[in-house]
Design a protein that fits this description.
conserved putative lor/sdh protein from methanococcus maripaludis s2 fold; 24 strands
């Protein structure tokens, strides 16, 4: 017996209900707003802390007063290397040698030119004596005598030039051996046997014996103080006195290099050692407020140092002056307050008025 329409609908009712539910769910998903995409980005923040001291601490490096790059005065191929980095050398000690073959040939050529010039000079002298004798007997004119005298002077000039070239060639042959100009320690050796070097190309760096200094790099805007203090690894303290300061700021690191003299460093403090230094902070005597923030909070994108302060979920930049920096924190001066929150990481991605969410502490 054929099915009636009512029976057909009743039989397929569960299927129709399932399809309707799936369509409703799909419509809800299409209409749901992308809440995660529109949410403000998360940022990590840190609290502004008072610096609490009138001194800045920086790292310094122990250097020799004289650190001279060593190079050959002539070019050539290195055939011998007599020293290694870290070796103590004495004045006049042989460090490197060049292949002298070409230099020897240059000496021989210059010597041959000098001998030829000497022979030409003797010939001119004999000719002048003969012309003088003939002129005294009125056999030649006065002009002939003048020409002989001029020829002699020319031969003398050629002899002198050839002699100078011979001396230069001999000196160049001597320059094939590189000797230490003073006693000291080789802190770097780059020349290798078989390497072809040009005249003036450094093959080693010599730290000469004598006074030692501490090199310190100050942040941009900080004038290197005249005095300070160095804290040695064994706990001893040494006074520092400014010897020289770079007149310009390094364009890459935005720092100023300064060299400080230090007396009586123990032999255990080797060249290149890192020591802690302390200096009076500029502005501390005038009551300047100093704050400590993470190094990552500093933003220097062409507008001077600044930090990004978080207020009511929005960011605003605060200009600061850097007074000291170490590997974790920076000491700054600026219109900040203790306890205010500043962005501690990713400041290069921020802009004025940006809305953000603070990451859970």
């Amino acid at each position: 017996m054929p099915e009636t329409p009512s029976r057909t609908i009743a039989a397929h009712a569960p299927l129709w209900a399932t399809l309707a539910l799936c369509a409703a769910l799909a419509g809800c998903q299409r209409g749901a707003p992308p809440a995660a995409a529109d949410a403000p980005p998360l940022v990590r923040t840190a609290a502004v802390e008072p610096a609490g001291g009138a001194a800045q601490g920086l790292s310094g490096t122990v250097r020799a007063h004289v650190e001279a790059p060593l190079a050959f005065q002539v070019g050539g191929r290195i055939i011998a290397r007599r020293v290694d980095a870290g070796q103590t050398v004495s004045a006049g000690q042989v460090l490197f040698e060049l292949d002298p073959a070409d230099l020897e040939q240059a000496v021989r050529a210059a010597q041959a030119d000098a001998e030829a010039a000497e022979t030409a000079l003797r010939t001119a002298q004999s000719e002048l004596a003969r012309v003088r004798e003939l002129q005294a007997r009125a056999f030649v004119s006065a002009q002939a005598l003048e020409r002989a005298e001029l020829a002699l002077r020319e031969a003398q000039s050629r002899r002198d030039a050839a002699s100078a070239r011979l001396t230069q060639a001999r000196n160049a042959r001597g320059y094939a051996v590189l000797r230490s100009p003073a006693a000291g320690v080789l802190i770097d050796v780059t020349g290798q046997p078989g390497q072809v070097v040009a005249a003036g190309q450094a093959v080693a760096v010599l730290a000469q014996q004598g006074a030692r200094e501490v090199e310190v790099h100050f942040p941009d805007g900080v004038t290197p103080p005249a005095e300070g203090e160095a804290l040695l690894p064994d706990g001893q303290r040494r006074a520092l006195r400014l010897r020289e300061a770079a007149p310009a700021v390094d364009p890459l690191g935005r720092t100023r290099r300064a060299r400080y003299t230090v007396a009586e460093l123990p032999p255990t403090v080797a060249l290149g050692s890192v020591v802690a230094t302390r200096f009076a902070l500029p502005g501390a005597a005038a009551g300047e407020a100093l704050w400590r923030v993470p190094v990552g909070a500093l933003d220097e994108r062409g507008q001077g140092p600044r930090v990004w302060r978080l207020r009511d979920g929005r960011l605003d930049p605060v200009a600061v002056q850097v007074r000291a920096v170490d590997d974790r924190q920076a000491t700054v001066a600026g219109p900040l307050q203790a306890g205010e929150r500043v962005v501690a990481l990713g400041t290069h991605l921020l802009h004025d008025g940006m809305t953000v969410r603070e990451l859970a502490r």
